[in-house]
Amino acid sequence: MATDVKVPALGESITEGTLAQWLKQPGEAVAADEPIASLETDKVSVEVPSPVAGTMSEQLFKEGDTVAVGAVIARIGEAGAAAAAPSAPAAEPATGQGQTEVAGAQVNPVGAGENPALREDHDAATADLTLSPAVRRAVLEHHVDPSSIKGTGKDGRLTKDDVLLAAKAKDGGAAAPVHEPEVKAPTPVAAVPAPVARPATTGERKEERIKMTRLRQTIATRLKEAQNTAALLTTYNDVDMSAVIDARARYKDLFEKKHGIRLGFMGFFVKAVALAARDVPSVNARIEGDEIVYSDFLDVSVAVSAPKGLVVPVVRDADKLSFAEIEKAIAAFGKKAKEGTLTADDMKGGTFTISNGGVFGSLLSSPIINPPQSAVLGMHRIEERPVVRDGQIVARPMMYLALSYDHRLIDGREAVTFLVRVKEAIEDPTRLLIDL
Fold first, then answer.
1. Hey, CA dihedral for 41, 45, 46, 48, is it positive or negative?
2. Which of 79, 208, 232, 360 has its CA 20 to 30 A from that of 25?
3. For 187-240, what is each residue's pLDDT tens digit?
4. What pLDDT was estimated at residue 92?
């Protein structure tokens, strides 16, 4: 008797998701609690486990379909049972395009514009692996053997970064997409048409159309909502990072030995924001209807780059945490973001956001607030610039800071005061210890 596999609860206020990937195919053995599918919601990716051990007998939806919480998406039969024909296969083959049968298994035809030889190599290399669409594209483009790459994702699965690193190692340099020219049979001389004047083109010109993920759609909606609703304004300042850099250099080894985590820049900025928010509480407040809600706690949303987009897990009660606790929390979130295991609870709430574009090389930007929050601090890259100190021009490691805020709630004077407090704390970290 087959057992139904239902979409689990996906988090507060989330009623549906997108079936991003089937991790098990009909006929494959499944262990109890083993993930059989990956769902993508507005906020996170969720794996659907099998409630029993057995054999995947039927898939009721295909990849890309929207599924509601509680819907039956698959059925698990007894171990060794024959798989039923899926009512909605993960990939529907087009008719009349050379579909073939090999040893009873259906093989999809080569798509338009694809290189047949490359497709055969790719299929052979990935026959025993479960790869996401992004990883499959990377394998196809860079001509790497996925079976020879050690995956760093959850349960040892390959990520796109794993493939890119393997391609770079194979090529001995930067990995770049490789497009093989299509091989065509030679045209008889007699059949060569007269030359036709046309603009010269070089290389292949391709377009790829990919449906936006739910996460990307949500990011787009929320950012546009912030622009449409809030009265956004940004104020800028720069900060001399010399004192923080010296402190890290002096104590980084002792810090890591004692706490098992590296001392980064984010701990200093979280502490500086907590200190400044005491003087300017409006940056940690929000508007609800015709009321202003002030929080006596600081939950910092830290922008983290994930394979599918920017996510903002929340470091809760950040104003009460030590440097080590802040760094450990951020490191754990970064690892979960890379593995795609962040939960809705990890990103729920947040009263203030810190975004560090400097890790990608950004010199200056104007961040957009994360509704319903009223302010976001943007950090940027550190670079030596000439500044005047005691009447002398000297080189100092400088960073631009940007505070974007909702002008409906936060006045310009308050925004500037807050950013100056952050600057003062970073340039003189002793303030963080004696609460000045």
1. positive
2. 208
3. 444 444 555 555 566 678 888 888 887 777 877 888 888 888 889 999 999 999
4. 42
Q: Which two structure tokens, joined as six digits, stand for 371?
A: 């509704």
Secondary structure, 3-state, the chain: CCEEEECCCCCCCCCEEEEEEECCCCCCEECCCCEEEEEECCCCEEEEECCCCEEEEEECCCCCCEEECCCEEEEEECCCCCCCCCCCCCCCCCCCCCCEEECCEEECCCCCCCCHHHHHHHHHHCCCCCCCHHHHHHHHHHCCCHHHCCCCCHHHCCCHHHHHHHHHHHHCCCCCCCCCCCCCCCCCHHHCCCCCCCCCCCCCCCCCCCCCCHHHHHHHHHHHHHHHHCCEEEEEEEEECHHHHHHHHHHHHHHHHHHCCCCCCHHHHHHHHHHHHHHCHHHHEEEECCEEEECCCCCEEECEEECCEEECCEECCHHHCCHHHHHHHHHHHHHHHHHCCCCCHHHCCCCEEEEEHHHHCCCCCCCCCCCCCCEEEEECCEEEEEEEECCEEEEEEEEEEEEEEECCCCCHHHHHHHHHHHHHHHHCCHHHHHCC
285-288/100-102 β-pairing: unpaired
Dihedral sign (CA 10, 15, 20, 22): positive
Q: What is the sign of the dihedral through the CA atoms of 414, 417, 423 and 424? A: negative
Handedness of CA 144, 148, 150, 151 (dihedral sign): positive
Residue 126 pLDDT:
41
Domains along the chain with CATH numbers: 1-91 (2.40.50.100), 117-181 (no CATH), 231-434 (3.30.559.10)
The catalytic residue among 4, 123, 317, 407 is 407
Which residues, in sequence order, are bridge partners of residue 45? 40
CA gap 96, 94 in Å, rounded: 7
* Confidence category of residue 276, pLDDT binned at 50, 70, 90: very high
Active site residue 407: yes
- What pLDDT score does 245 carry? 95
User: Strand 72-77's sheet: what is its strand order?
Assistant: 3-6, 72-77, 54-59, 29-30
The residue among 255, 378, 249, 373 whose CA lies nearest residue 325 is 255
Q: Which residues contact 368 (CB under 8 A, 6 or more apart)?
A: 223, 226, 227, 232, 376, 404
Active site residue 279: no
pTM of the predicted model as reported, rounded to 2 decimal places: 0.59
